[in-house]
Amino acid sequence: MEDLVKARIKEVLKGDQNAFGEIIELYKDKVYQICYRMLGNSFEAEDCTQEAFIRAYVNIDRYNIDRKFSTWLFRIATNLCIDRIRKKKPDYYLDAEIAGADGLTLYSQIPSSGLSPDKKVESMELQDHIQQEILNLPEKYRTVIILKYIEELSLNEISEILNLPLGTVKTRIHRGREALRKKLRHI
Amino acid sequence: MGNQCDEKYVEYMHEYLDGDISIEHEKELREHLQTCSACKKQFEELEKTIALVQSTSHIQAPPGFTEKVLKNLPKEKKNVSIKRWFGRHPFLTAAIIFLTLMTTSMVSSWEQKNEQFTVTKHPDIIIENNTAIVPEGVTITGDIVVENGDILIAGKVEGNVTVINGKVIEEKNGGESYLASAGEVTGDIEEIDQVFEWLWFQIKSTMQKILEH
Ligand SMILES: [Zn+2]
Fold first, then answer.
1. Which residues of B touch A50 (CB under 8 A)?
2. What pLDDT does A120 receive?
3. Candidates A32, A83, A155; nearest CB to B60
4. Distance from CA of residue A173 to its chain's centroid?
5. Burial of A30 per CB tally in 10 Å (0-12, 13-18, 19+)
6. Strand pairing partners for B168?
7. pLDDT at A90
8. Helix-strand-coil percent breakdown of chain B, rounded to 5?
9. CB neighbours of residue A131 within 10 Å
10. Residues of chain A found within 8 Å of residue B69, distances taken between Cβ atoms
11. Residues 6+ apart with CB under 8 A from A161
């Protein structure tokens, strides 16, 4: 698959936008999945996924063709997600959004936000509950847990994507697992 | 971690879950889990946690996503179309290179220029030790050319950035390097390090002028 991808990228470098369409087809679900799990709602996830592909296209001549393309692409996507998370200041933002409009904001999508705690547990499906606990992780643990257990990437690949030493990735995965364990053990 | 045991056993659990536990550690862990219910419980909870995370269904990008992105891609980059034009017109290309060489007498001007740090003039660009800085929150409209120095972009540039004999420094954020989140540049970013690339840059600007007329 990497060979096919590299052949397409050479065409993209020559200016063929349709070749980039094939690249999008190959990776859109994986990138969307990262963004959705990181950001927690489908509108933002779609926007972020789109931005990741546009950035990859615009900067395609900075991609080193000897490396794995998905690593580079996932790096762009995770960086964009982290930027968005850091810019968001979640609590303040959520309150402002909910108070401001008639409930039909992007953020009314987040399952937990407006509901009281006991209602939350009742109405939330198991899937949503797990997703919510992933979202509750600090962003640096959330990223590695998603890449490891949802994208099923190797620790080495994760360390390349995040540009972090392998030891740091391991520590973050350990802490992420422990944090999730405490939240999910009673299920 | 909620149990009284030596922390090494928790370490071993994580080594095991990462798939890089040594034979000795694994043996030690197994033996310990047979006698220690607290650790056994913690280990089972960890395994369950992983299984739960992995059980979340894989979601897909919304329908029509690819078409949408393709529609929003910027038009073909200028240099791509210029490079292609060169490919199609080898004779004219040679003529243009010749003319460019003649009119700008580049090689000698390359040698002269080689030392001095210069930046496209703009009141908002800060200069520090041969580095041009576009500060955060500042938007520069127009192209920037830096020679014999670097540029750090924390703000936004609405135009192309060209660095001759230097590099574009990516903004560091919390000690981690951020490839995609350096300040925003709406045009092309180019780094030119050698005489030949510089030549190419000169030819391209000449070409652009020709094509614009
Ligand atoms: Zn124990």
1. 65, 68-69, 72
2. 44
3. A32
4. 16
5. buried
6. B151
7. 54
8. 50, 20, 35
9. 22
10. 24, 50, 53-54
11. A71, A74, A75, A78, A147, A153
Q: What angle do CA B28, A187, A147 make, to 5 degrees?
A: 70
State both tokens at A36.
């959705």
Task: Report the amino acid identity of residue B81.
Answer: S
> How far does the centroid of ligand 1 lie from the alpha carbon of residue B16, in Å?
15
The token pair at B67 is: 């078409």
Contact: B69, A162; criterion CB under 8 Å: no
With H, G, I as helix, E, B as strand and everything else as coil, classify residue B169: strand
Regarding an ipTM greater than 0.85, the answer is no
Within 8 A of B176 by CB-CB distance, chain A residues are: 162-164
Residues with Cβ–ion distance below 5 A, ligand 1:
B 5, 36, 39
Nearest C-alpha neighbor of B178 from the set A152, A140, A143, A77: A77
Question: CB-based contacts of B100: which residues, under 8 Å, 6+ apart?
Answer: B106, B202, B203, B206
Q: List strands edge to edge, sheet with B144-147.
A: B118-119, B144-147, B161-164, B189-192
The radius of gyration of chain A's CA atoms, rounded to the nearest angstrom, is 18
Q: How far is the CA of B204 from the centre of ligand 1 (A)?
A: 69
The pTM (predicted TM-score) of the whole model is: 0.61
Instruction: For residue A159, give both structure tokens.
Output: 């360390």
Q: Which residue of B has its CA nearest to A31?
A: B61
Distance CA A102, CA B163 (A): 50
Burial of residue B74 (CB within 10 Å: 0-12, 13-18, 19+) is exposed
Q: How confident is the model at residue A108 (pLDDT cuts 50, 70, 90)?
A: very low
- Tokens 């606990």 belong to residue: A133
| Residues B65, A2, A33: CA angle, nearest 5 degrees | 35
B70 alpha carbon, distance to own chain's centre: 21
pLDDT in tens, A26-50: 999 999 999 999 999 999 999 999 9
